[in-house]
């Protein structure tokens, strides 16, 4: 699930309105509650590197998405810190169809043995493309998603993915609004909700060279 917000300059709020923002880097101006996008991406990439993959390719989301940018930045940083090659980004639009199109391209890359997709729907498209092109998952290529949507465990194979706790995000948003109403929050800032990697059957060590 991805939340898209209008730029602050285009939003008109009544005087005195209490505001809590989700999925944003506006913590210098507002109270923000967000998933720890960067740490989720780091967990995904480190998992694949720890399995023995030389590098990890990334299928990112739309350019205008804060979450997409945070995940891509963390992917790039982990590879750079590890001294690994940083492959060219592949771009999607959160849909399974865009994942499928990117997967057809990646399937033709013999050096591509691991892909981190910025959401589970694009990961689903990758799985279809790899199946059609004879790239077996996970024996020939590993795939990690992000979100842990309810159907992720029913993909073929069941998808390794980063779990977001949307319930916790919602609960903290409500709590923050109530604290604003009671004047207990007077300064802007960001609260990050931790993520966790859920390892299933779509990841494995790379095939022998």
TrEMBL record:
Segments forming domain Transcriptional regulator LacI/GalR-like sensor: 45-203
Keywords linked to the UniProt accession: DNA-binding, Transcription, Transcription regulation
A GO MF label: transcription cis-regulatory region binding
Protein name: Transcriptional regulator LacI/GalR-like sensor domain-containing protein
Pfam families, alphabetized: Peripla_BP_3
Organism: Phytohabitans houttuyneae
Domain of life: Bacteria
